[in-house]
Every structure is written in C-alpha cells, then in structure tokens.
Amino acid sequence: MLGRNVVQSGPEAWGLPQDRLSRRARAVAGLEIVGTPPEERFDRITRMARLMFRAPIATITIFDGDTAWFKSADGFDGRQAPLSPVFCSTTADTGERLIVENAAEDRRFRNLPGVTGKAHVRFYAGEPLVDTHGEVVGSFCIYDDRPRAFRPDELELFQELAAWAQAELIERTDLARAKEVQEALLPGRTPHMPGYELAATCTPSFNVGGDYYDWARTDYGTALGVADVMGKGSAAAIMGATVRAALRTASELTERDRDGRYRLDKVMSGLARIVTGDLLRTNIFVTVFLAHLDESTGRVDFADAGHGFCLVVAPDGGFRRISGTDLPLGIEPRGSWSQGSFTLAPSETMLIFSDGLFDLFGGADDSLRHIALLATEHPDPNDLVDTIAGLATAATSVDDVTAIVVRRQP
Amino acid sequence: MIEFTNETLANGVGVIRPVGRLNMVSAPHLGANIDALISDGTVRLVVDLAGTDFIDSSGLGALITGLKKTRQAGGDLRLANPTAQITAVLEMTNLNRVLQPVASVDGAY
Predict the structure, then answer these.
(1) What is the rounded distance in angstroms from the CA atom of residue B78 to the CA atom of residue A158?
(2) Is residue B106 part of a domain?
(3) If you measure CA to CA, which chain A residue comes closest to B31?
(4) Cβ of B94 and A308 within 8 Å?
C-alpha cells in the first residue's frame, strides 16, 4: 500500500526526487489517517477558519501520493482530489507557505480548473503541515472566490490555526501508537486453567490509562495481578508500565517458601522496594492486588496493597470482599505487606477489579452489591468482562475500568 | 462543578471546604488550594468534607499529596466530616491509616 501510490504517481511529473516522495509516503502512512472518517476536532478548525476569514472553503489536506485527501473540508463537497492540478501541490512541492492573492493574474495558477471553472478561486493560502520528524505531510488551506490579501494580524491567525491543525494531526498519531503499545503490554492468550475459566478486560478512559492486569502460569496454578495507578492518561500509563516491569522482576527474584509456594507478601515488598522511590518522587501512588490460585485445591493466596477490590461471588448472589489492611505503594517510604488466603469453592467467581468499576456503580458500599449481582447474572467470565467493558464504554467512564474474573467450574 | 470556601481559624489552622465532586477534573483545584495555603505559611490544614459528595482516586491523590507537602513543611493535613462514600473509599484503600478523620474542624488540632 505504501509503495502503490508512489509507483503510479509518476513523481517526475512533479519534479520531485523519488526518495523524498517515499519519505513522505512513509510519513503519511505513519499518520494512519487517510481514509478515516471526519472528526469534530479537525472540522472545528476548518469551520472556525471559514468564519473568521469569511472565506467559502477551508481544508486540512493530506498528501497521499498523487492525491490530495481532505481530513476536513468545510464549504467543499468531496474527500479527495488529484493533487497535481490544485494549489496544494505547490505547498507539497516546496514545503513552504504559499499565498496567492489573485490567481487569475498569476501565471502559475491562472489556468488551473479551479480558477477558470465554476469554483472561481482567486485567493489561496496554504500552510504546510509537518509531522514530528519535520516531514511535510499535508497543508492547511483557505480558498476565496475574490482576490484578497492577508493583513499581518490575519496572517498570524492563519498560522495559529495551521499550528493547531498540525498539533491535532501529530497527537492523534502519537496517542494511537501509545494505545497500541499499552494494549500489547497486557498478557496475550488466556492460559488454560483446568477446572477454571478466566477472562479479563482493561478499558482506559482516555487513549491510555493507569490500570493494567497481568497473569502467569506457575508450576502449581496461576498468578494474577491488578494494579491501578492514581490518575489517568499518559502520566499514569508511564508509571503503569514501570510497575508492570517491576512486578515481573520481583516475582522472578523472590524466593519461595520451603514448600515451594510463592510468598506474595515478599513479592509485594520486593515490588515496593523497586518502585517506591519513583512513586514518592512523582507524587503518584498505586494500588496493587496480587493473587495466586492453586488449581488443585482452589486455595487463593493474596496480597493487597490498598486495592481492596476483590469479591468472591457465590451462584446465589451472596458475596464476600477479600482485602488486606496494607497501604498502597508510594504513600510512605517504607512499609510491610502481608499475605492472606481463602478458598474459591466450586461454582464461585472471583473478581479483581479497579475503582473505575466501583465508581461506575456509584462509588459507595452499595456498589459492591451491584457488582456481585452483575457477576451472578453473567456466570460466564467472558460474558461478564464483555458486559463490564460495554458499561465502561457506554458510560464514558472518567476512570479506567479493569477486571479479572476467575470462575471455578461446578 | 466544585467550589472551595477557605478560612483560617484563630489558632492558625487553615480550613478548606471543597463543595461538589472531587474527581480528576476538580482534584487539581484542591491541590492548588493546598499549595496556596502552604506558601502563605499555613501548614496545619483541615479539609472539611461535609459538602464533598464524591471522591475518586484522583481526589484521594490530591489529599495524599497535600498530606506529604504539609508534613514536609512541618505541618499536617487532617480530614473532617467525611461522608459515607468517602469513608468507604478511605477504608477500601486503607488510606484511613494515614488520612484519619478527626471528630470536628475545631478539634482537629
């Protein structure tokens, strides 16, 4: 796809060196924007431009090979046009701002169809839009059917709007990539747990968030973890990735007890030793719930660093909350964390979730009852996490919503 | 969405009353109020939560950050009149161990 336009476009017709074209093609492909539906955050800019400049057309144009593709076009029907017979090709070619005050009197443009035809373009202003590497990927354009000139304050305004369009373009790419990376950091395939079913969801309130879950098969069961970094968005996501790596490290390095069992209190303390300095310095705290399920007996060992959101739900809707009394990580320079255990009985479901789900149900004591009811109504863990993810999306939750669900088969 | 009425008591204790919801949107305002009092030299603070309808992890974060900053400045930050929802959230996160509610604003120090 990347090469197709380049080959067909006949770059020599534009007088552009091939390597520059392919650099642009790569840059445009990297934006992952061509073909996406209209978005208000771009349409707002072109609409404002039209209103402020009292001009009939404003566009945010992406240079997709030999095509001018409009991410937003206000006052103009159509999503794309051939690049060569329009003004933008000059912006694409030179990478510099182009202002044509009266196209009918400009030898370079007076024969363009847009000038001679019905559109009757006389004035054109185009500002190149560049990506994070400085590659020209498109232009911000204003068209008028009357000759005009920008006053200095109008030129300034035009540049401001173009800078805004460029920022939106870059942010989209950066965040979309960050989101992909964060999703890839969640564990992949659900492990096969004989006698149990497992499912999980993690729905950030923004593109990225501060929640995550992790799991690993062990020689006698499955280890599970949920962490919730205080705050949302990119800052929380950076700390979430740090905690994830630290937890995996602490799990690897922590010695087991004499029976060969994991000691989650020691794992938690190890995690705290690695991340507390970073957390204190950044004024961020994180709640963590660790569990290990011994599949042969249903025994669950757990350690709770201020997380507090683990429910065991019976088929009749009865439930109990599993929690410890230890603090989240990042509150105090030193601390200790303890381990508890309980048994997950046949037909019981264990839910470990983040406060985003708790807040979805009102964020008070009563919420736990609602969550337990939800688990009773959706005994299949996959069905339950799909329902939770659906609620998080529908309610446009202001917090990240994460849940791990384990059901012991009858 | 949220309003703050602040006052300084005769004994020099600063009282912050957030009225509304303490969430991601409003938590930074609480932080700014706390910072302003500390930079004015008021380091013994009470956050009166009687009018705070709801708190989430961002709100808790602002309180914890405030607690650390006041302690670094030689003071403290205490909570008064938490609603049932706030008490529940403090208990679930075990943060009631460090943010222990006091009986009243006047008796906070």
Answers:
(1) 51
(2) no
(3) A283
(4) yes
